[in-house]
Every structure is written in structure tokens, then in C-alpha cells.
Structure prediction request, 982 residues.
Amino acid sequence: MGGLPRWHILSGIMATRQAQVLGRWALAPAVTVLAAWSFVPLALTIYFAFLRYNLQDPDNTGWAGFSNFYYFFKDPYFVKDLINTVLLVAGTIVTTVVGGTLLALLLDQPFWGRGIVRLLMISPFFVLPTVSALVWKNLIMHPVFGLFAGIQRFFGSHEPLDWFGRLPLFSVGIVVSWQWLPYAALILLTALQSLDEEQKDASAMDGAGPLSYFRYIVLPHLARPITVVILIETIFLLNTFAEIKVGGIGGIAGNLTYLVFSQLNDATDVGMAAAGGLVAVVLANVVSAFLVRLVGKNLEA
Amino acid sequence: MARRQSPRRTLLITIVAWTIGLLMFFPIFWTAVAAFKSESDAYSLPQTVLSTPWTFENFGIVQDRSDYFRYVFNTTVIVVLSTLLGLMFAIPAAWSMAFAPTAQSRSSLSGRQWLAIIFSGLVICFLGLYFTDWKPSNALVGFALLLIFVVPGSLWAWSQNTSGTLLWMLSTKMMPPAGALIPIYLIFNRNGLVFKDWGWINLSDYNLIDSFWGMVPLMTLLNLPIIIWMLFTYFKEIPVGILEAARMDGASLWNELFRVLTPMALPGIASTCLLNIILAWNEAFWSLNLTNKYAAPLSFFISEYSSPEGQFWAKLSAASIMAIAPILVIGWFSQKQLVRGLTFGAVK
Amino acid sequence: MGSITLKNVRKAFGDTVIIPGLDLAIADGEFVVFVGPSGCGKSTLLRLIAGLEDVTSGTISIDGEDVTEAAPAKRGLSMVFQSYALYPHMSVYNNIAFPLKMAKMDKAAIDAKVQTAAATLNLTQYLQRRPGQLSGGQRQRVAIGRAIVRNPRAFLFDEPLSNLDAALRVGMRLEIGELHHKLGTTMVYVTHDQVEAMTLADKIVVLNAGVIEQVGSPLELYKSPANQFVAGFIGSPKMNFVTGAPAVNRNAATIGVRPEHIKISKDTGEWAGTVGVAEHLGSDTFLHVNAAALGTLTVRAEGEVSVSYGDRVFLTPDLNRIHRFDANGVVIR
Prediction:
């Protein structure tokens, strides 16, 4: 972005030296605390990742070279949890974006009691992750007392499915999707409602059916909000933790966040955990470099 | 939506929409029902909705067993204080980026100065290690890391142009907490990296683990990028002419921010606060890892009920409902505003 | 109290030069209007004076004091914005009182000043309302009220009437003129409307592409425009420009004649043409005459003229009021 950005003349901003200096100082506190927040732990994590540092074994100190990384990568959980992380994030995003678009299209139609349905719909977004994990695990997906088990028994099954035991990742995926579907649906609904009604009339005049209307008018209009939904959900889903810990599936279907936590909590190995944390940081940065650029384009448009 | 459609179609859509709405809400409803059952009814098969007499005893038991109100108090303190603290940082920052953006990144240091800072950090690191027989001393290495990473990093972030700064702030949110957990734990902990006996000053009596002094700033930092970003999109909609008028009228930066801008952007600030309250209320990773008693919020309270031994589901349900009820009610009353804010300016 | 001097003022955004270098002196108490087509830099110039933009080089001084680096509030100027820029969350009273509060004046003095200003501008009964509840003209008056309570050294107006409808615009124009006579304070006024410029100004500054084309009183500009741009910009309907033989005969590349300085006749005259559209305004008639090689000429005739579409007519320019321009568009005197 060299020279003068387009928005300078268009939106009339304060461009005096005085305003620029004030702006710099007004920005400084936020930048400083965020820089400290992002660089200090990162620097320390890098440092620890090369140390022998186990809380249970205070005598074993000194440089570890790359051995922490070596053992972390060799940990059988690593590849599994890495795949789990990707599956959970990607699966949930696909589910919520597709489901959210369909729901938004539905809710955009006139029907009786829209306000109340909206309230019902958005509710899962407000539920604590720990609560939703507990509720789904114990009241809905429990193999004996859960609602799903009851439904299965109603249809004559004698051995209802143990969701969290047999399909741990899928179950957590359902829980997380349940929490994030309202977000996607309501954002996309807001976007749909901002769509100009005249465009629909014009496209109808031009002979476009509902499908081509969706394909050529609605979908491009939703591109921006969908990017934002993907970004926000990725931020939160990469770090899914409560559902896995409270759901008690860390050992069978954990993600990277959980793996690092367990290195620290169960194995008390700071060095290994730091190496794992670094791997998670690198992974997140690969994703964010891509996503943030995508959103950055949207910001300037 | 003045478009006319046939009543049959409306009826069909009504049925489908209500079905989906009720299905989405069902887990919460089911929990609420279980909360009013007696413990033995909660285990009886088949599960029924309208079972034997309803009871409020579970709520009383939960309060007696875990002191619910203390957790509500803790959560409220953390949520409210972190929101206010966040606004204090975010309002000036968002103002700056919305109204006085920097077009070009101007590095505040020359390339040679950058190299000098990093090089001196490395040299200090090396000398320190040399004189300590290659046994790393935390204080020394910490200082060196500060020179190598933190100072250049902050200066770099500060000298970015506005969209660069904005994206960088967002990317700090992408940082997995797993990567920061260990350092934060060691920094916060008694006898950790900071709170220990340094010789010239004894800090070993302090501790940020399980304390509001740790949780409030942490929660602020956690959500600051989102607050700034959201405020930025709201501020962008305010005509700059009004702020210029204030400037002509002799308003100082403080007056411009808090007597002109803030009152005008009040709806936007309100929905930003709401989002922050919800995010902070529902935060689990740090709450579960850094608190256990004095500053533990509701996330922690509810996780106590996840222990496999002795499952008391009626009480678990009652506790769940107690933990989500306040935020659910707040959310319901403010959802219109909240949803608009959540679009982060992606919807005009 | 209120003379403004610009010396070699230059403004560029990156590589885009808005004002390439400009000198101007505004005397105390003068009503100066910057006029020019959109994008000519007139608003930028006003914002430079206000301090809302930095000059790239050059100096601005007010009453001999260099204010080039001074903050907007320290320059002692008041500005009325095109969008009024009223504080929507404050009552009219608080809007007008805001600059005084910022100056930390005591409450009684503020109240007295606000009441006086409100009385002058007929706003007394609206003092407790919010800007959103006022009409466009009333908002404009509040903006002016906010400007006058500060007793500024000069007022700056940035296209203040462009958001008003035509009828209101005429009324507000008169009020601003009245205000200038009452206060006697320097006023700098930006507009793209030459009628506003002609009616209000003591001195008009015609700008084009950041360059001053001419400075002078309205009648000076009307009577002796320095170049073709000013000649075409000032006056309504626009001056007719004729090239070719009639110009060459008068030793000019182009000659200009104002529509009101052309006589129309059915029998005889210098140029022949056919009548096109005729605009009957009652007091005047504007005839658009198609004069073959000379192009379409506009003629302003007093009262009613009984010609109709397609009639053949003859036109004679007033010989004393022909403006001659050379190939560069500069006037030949």
C-alpha cells in the first residue's frame, strides 16, 4: 500500500501532523499491552522449549537442544491430536456455515413468531462451553440416561450408542457446532436482511429463478460476512478446550491445546509443553496468515 | 418484508422454523426440566418431561454445596472490570485508527538500529551464559529475550500503518493459549519468574494465580483485539466533521473522546461491551487453568460437577441453569444490538 | 482583528498536488468568497486556514501572527461545516455552549452568551431541542450560533447552504449577509455557486485547479474578467465565447459576450441565426440562438420577446462590452 490510500480523500480523516501524533499516542497503550501479551509469552515459550525443565524433577536442568521437539513429534498423540484439531475446526466451520446459510434463508422468510424463534435460536451462543459439554454428555448423549439413548430404546434398540465413548470427536463436533450455529445463522441473516429488495425484483424481471438468484445475487452478497464468520470461528475453535476437558475425552480424542495442557498438567514437563505450544503457535500462524489476509482485503474494500 | 406469499407457504415455513428453533433450544429446555426433578426422578427410565412433583431443592443444595453466589460475584467482578479496563485501552486506540489512520508504515528505527538492538541482546545473552558456566539464569535470559523480542516487537507493531496494526492485533487473538499457558503460569505463580526473592527485593509473597489481579488484566488482554476491532467498525460510521468541529471548538483529546465521540457511539459501545461480557463470562481455558478458589468464575464452578464419581444429574442440571441463566437473560434482551455488532462491519 | 495572510501556501497529498503555491491577503472585516468548480481546492484551502489540514509548505498568519503550526482551536477561528456537524447527543443550548465550556468560561457568562446568540438567530424557543428535531435551516442557524459565541477573529463557512433547498438558501444567504454587517467580522466563505459569491462577497477569489485565477470585487470580476475561465464562471447565464472570423476581426483568438450584452432583432444585425429553445422567465427571456458557424449563443432579452422556435433572427453584440482573449485564454485589454 504505497502512497495515498484511497480512503483518505473519500472519507475525510484527520490528516494533520498534530492529529497523527495524537493518534500515535492514543494507540500506544493498546499496542504496548498487546505487544507485551503476545511477545513476552512467546519469547519465554521459545526459551523453555529448548530447556530440560520438569516440575517433578528439579535437578534435571540445562539445555535440551531439539529433544523436546523430537519427543513431542514422536509422541503418538501428536499426529492424532493434530488431525483431530484440523477435523474439529474444519468440520464445525463447514457445518455451521452451510447450516447457517440455510437457516438464514429460512428465517428471512416471513412467518409467525419470528422474534421468538430468533431468541430460541441464538440461545446456545450464550451457554458456557463447560455447561454445554456437561449437558450434552450427561443428559443427551449418555448411553443409559441420555435422551438419544431413550430415543434409540423407543425404536427397539437394546444397546444404545455411547456417543462420547464411541464417537468422541464427532460428539464434541456436535456440541461445538450447536454452540456456533446460531452465530453463523444470525450474522448471515443480518446480511440477508441488508440485501436490497429491489435487486430481487430486478433479477426476477431479468428472468432469474430462485436458484440463480441465490447463486448470482445472494451468495456474492454473503461472501464478506462468511469470511468474518470463518475467521471468528477459527479463532475460537482452534482453542477448543473446555468441551474436551469437561467431556473427558482428552485421552481418546484430544486436540493440540489439550495435548499441551496435559503435558504440563499430567506430565509436568514444561519443556515439552513449551515445544508443543510452539507447534500450536506455528500452526495457528499458518492459518491466521491466510485468514487475516483474506479479512484484510475485506477491511479495505 | 412486504412481499406477499400464500398463507399455506407461510404456515409451512412457520412449522419448519419453529421446529428448528425448538430443537436448537431443546438441550437448554431439557436441562431446565431436569433441574426441577428430584434426584431419583432424574434417573428414572424412561425420561419424562412432566414427571412427579417439581422441586426447587436442587438449587438450594447447589448453593449450599458450592456457594454459587460467590462464583457469580467472582464472574461479575472479572467480567465488569475487564470490560471497563478494555474500553479504556480500546476507545483511544479505535479512535486513532478510525479517524487518524496512518497511511504508510514508518519504522521508528533504522535498519541499523534494529540490528543493534537484536545484536546487543544476543551479546548479553552470550556473555551472561559464559559467566554462568552455560547454566541459563532465568533473569538474565529473560532480560535478553526482552531485548531481542519484546522491544523490537513492540516498536514494529507501533510503527505499522493502520490496517497493518489492526490485522496484527487480530492475529494476537489467533495465538493459541496453549502456547502462552506455561509462561503465564510461571509469571503469575508464586516463586515463579517474577514473584520470588530477587535479593534486592522480595516478591515471594505475591501471586497472581487465582486472584482478581491476575484474571482481570488477563481477560482484558484476551478480548482487547475483538473490542478494538468492533469499536473501530462503529467509529468508522461517525462523520469525522463532528470531531473536527469539536477540535475547532477547542476540545482537548480527552473531551473529544469522552464528551463527543463516546456519547455519539454509545449504541456501538454498548454492544461491544455486551459481546465482551459474553466472551468473558464464557471463557474457560484460562479460568480452568489459573483459578481454583478465590477468583474462580462460573466456568470453574460448573466444571466441579463434571467429576465422574457420584453423578447427581438433577444438581448438575440445576447448577448448569444457574450458571447460564444470567447471561442468557442479558443476551436475550440485547440480542438485536449484539448481532449487529458481531458482524464486525461485514454487513453494512 | 482578523486579517489573514497566506504566503506561498502549497498542499499536496503524496504525489497529488492540490494547491501548487498560492498567495492571498484577506483584510480585517472583509467578506471573502472562494469560488470555483468542484475539486478546485477551495475547501482544502479553507481547511488549511482552519488548521484541519497541514500545509505542505508556506505560511499562514492571522493578524500578523504565524499560525502555520498552531492547532485549530488556537487560531481563534470559527467554522460552519457543510453538514453542520452539530453534536447530535446535545441540546441546541449545549451545542452552542460547547466551545465556551471548552474555554472553561463560568456558567453565568456562558448562559448570557448563549441566550444572546439564540436571540440573534431566532433560536430561543428551540434551545432545549436536539439537532435531530430541527429543520435544515434551524440546524444551520445553530451551527452559526455555535460559531459566533466564541467571538472569533474570523468565520469560515464551508459550503454552508448546499444542503438546503432553493427557497431556504436565498433566505439564509440574506441572513449571513446581514450577520456580516452586524458583526463586522472577517468571513471566509467557500461555495461552488457563483450567485452566492456575487451576492455575498466583498472580494471574490476564483480558484481553478488550486490556482487563483482572479481576485476582485464581484463587479470587477463581472466587468473585467482576467481570463476566459473567470469570464465563463462568473455571470449567469454564462458568457458566450465565439471563435473564428468575428474574433480574428478583433485581433483575438476568442471573444466573449455576455448574453445580456447582445441585442436581438428580426431585421438586421451582425450575426444571423435561428431561434432554438426560448426560456421565458417573465422579467427576462433567455433565447438559445443557433448561429451557424458561431455555435449556439445565449441571448438575454428584457421582458417578453415575441419570437418562436425556428424564427430567423439577427444578433448584434454591444461593442463596448466585448471581451477579447488571446490563444491562452488571457484577456487582451
User: Anything to note?
Assistant: The domain at 4-232 of chain C is CATH 3.40.50.300 (Rossmann fold). The radius of gyration of chain C is 24 Å. DSSP finds nine helices and 19 strands in chain C.
